[in-house]
Amino acid sequence: MTTSFKTHPVSLKDLMRDCHEGKLQLPDFQRGWVWDQDRIIDLLASISEGFPVGALMTLDASGEVAFAVRPVEGAPAPQKKLEAYLLDGQQRMTSLYQSTSSRSPVLTQTAKNRPAKLHFYFSIRDALNPNIARRDAILPVPEDRVVRENFGRDIALDLSSEDKEFAALHFPIDRMFDAHIWTQKALTWAFQDMEARQEHMNLINEFSKQIVNNFAEYHLPVITLGKETSRAAVCLVFEKVNTGGKALDAFELVTAMYAGEKEEFRLRDDWRARRDRLVKHSVLSNVEPVEFLQAISLLHTKGLRDTAEGAGKEPPAISANRNSLLQLPLSAYRQYADQVERGYLTAAKFLHWLKIFRARDLPYQTQLVPLAAILAQLGDNWENDVTRKSLSQWYWCGVFGELYGSAVESRFALDIRDFGRWLTGGPLPQTIERADFREERLRTLRTRLSAAYKGVHALLMQTGAEDFRSGQPFDQMVFFDESVDIHHIFPEAWCKVQKIKPEVYNSAVNKTPLSARTNRMIGGVAPAAYLARIEKGNDQNPPIPADRLRSILKSHEIDVSLLAADSFQAFFDDRRARLLALIETAMGKPAVREDVAPPDPDDSYGEEEHEAELMEAAESEEVPA
Fold it and tell me: Last residue of a domain, which of 413, 434, 455?
């Protein structure tokens, strides 16, 4: 639908009155007012000279779109019915309202970002002097209207009463729209001693003609969006015209829309309560409110699609993009929020089963969205052995196929559409179908920036890896109590001495999950030396029989003989093949094997290049209806 709008000039005085009475208010998703004193002075100076200061944008409040609102900062409680939302111009309108139409000090900040309560004055002499820049004629004055110097010991300018303002020839800008009253009082003051004060009166009259009249006659162009404008269009317009600030996310916009409903639903409070329950699980500690809404949108739009298909109608798209969130009705949130929360809590259990215990170890935070939505639909059925293994295959394909780095909303829609069909005999989900893992990728997995890097180590723990020193499997208690993390097998210090290149020894092939105590015990010596140390034991660590140590190392996909021989290259090639087989089993499909000579480490294929490839591929992906 085409958005209707009209542009017309509105006097500054009328705009200030509308702000004061509450006819013009801010939608609650607008952030706070932030202008400092210099920007306010520049704005006032521009208006005093009749210069343009940009257009405002408002939305007719009589339509179906409703937002929670708040007055312009500094304005009293609304006295009149809301007529329009101020979408663009908050900083200007707030600055002008507080400085010209409120007797309270302006709550701003200095150029050094220190909070300040100020009144603004025109020096009448300076304002009328053509050789003085207009902004230099505007003076910020402290809350008590007394300017001090010499560290506050001396009074440089006292404007604490009207008579003192008259005598000093300083006009209070907060009297701009009742300047005639101030001027009349100044005339009465001048009549008390006309001989001495005639010049004051002449300057005040001239100031009224040249400066005050500019404010009284000033008009701003106002673009008014019609009442037919949709929510999505309003939010899109708002985002486009507010490019200078931090972008609003969909959650803030939806929060404002729900608060504008008749029920005045407080989405932010509801989310905080849910988040408090979710973050009890470390792996869910980074769940964002927008992600929660995305999971709800997946279930809502899938439900609409299923209903349409059942009725033989054209099915709508399943979606979790920004536009679908802005169209998410409050009734849908109420319907699915509890279900999605349970989906997230179940996702924590599933991830613990995969040996992923912390948010920082999640291969993809984004993959939690479709995972929670799928689990919300499955309910208790996820615990079925076949279902859980299917879910595991889907998850690992997303991780090792590195499919959730960009263009994720379209993949979310595919996941929620495909997974249920697959369980009932339908085709493989496209996440599984499109996932490929290339053998050479193992060479370039070096840091936690890579989802596959984190996936390799979770997979090792899931398939039974045990700590070198204690022989304990990495369950949740051991993981946290023993501070388990990813560490080198051939220690970094030893590799440096052997002139092995960092891009090689830092590969995931040379890393494995170990406890902090075990890593300290290994130190920086050759593997043969630390294996002997582990086998022998010490005062804190009992000895480990050779057969048992061999079994432990095997659980990490390590050939003991190659490790004990300090044969790095042979170990590296052997373990790469073992890890590749482990990944293939998890994905349920073969990897793409190397068929050329290994690349020169000096020309290694890095993380950044790989991520760029993935983003390009993902952005070109089309999602079928």
Answer: 434
Q: At what angle do helices 527-536 and 546-554 cross, to 10 degrees?
A: 130
How many angstroms separate the CA atoms of 287 and 348, rounded?
11
- Main-chain dihedrals φ then ψ at residue 354, nearest 5 degrees: -85, 0
What's the rounded mean pLDDT across residues 78-101? 93
User: Rounded to the nearest 10 degrees, how much is the dihedral formed by the CA atoms of 360, 363, 367, 369?
Assistant: -10
- Residue 376: left (phi > 0), alpha (psi -120 to 50), or beta? alpha
Q: Is residue 621 part of a domain?
A: no
Please give the structure tokens belonging to residue 16: 């200030």
* Pair 394, 371: CB distance under 8 Å: no
Radius of gyration of the chain (CA): 34
196 in any annotated domain: yes
Secondary structure E strands in 408-557: 485-488, 511-514
220 and 325 in a single domain? The answer is no
Could you say which of 434, 462, 483 is where a domain stops? 434
Residues 426 and 458 in one domain: no
Q: Is residue 295 one of the residues assigned to a domain?
A: yes
**pLDDT bucket at 616, cuts 50 / 70 / 90:** very low
Q: Answer yes or no: do 521 and 469 share one domain.
A: yes
DSSP 209: I
pTM assigned to the model: 0.71
Contact of 375 with 407, CB cutoff 8 Å? no
Per the structure, the complete domain to which residue 378 belongs is given by: 265-434
Report the greatest alpha carbon distance in the chain. Answer: 113
Residue 244, pLDDT > 60, answer no
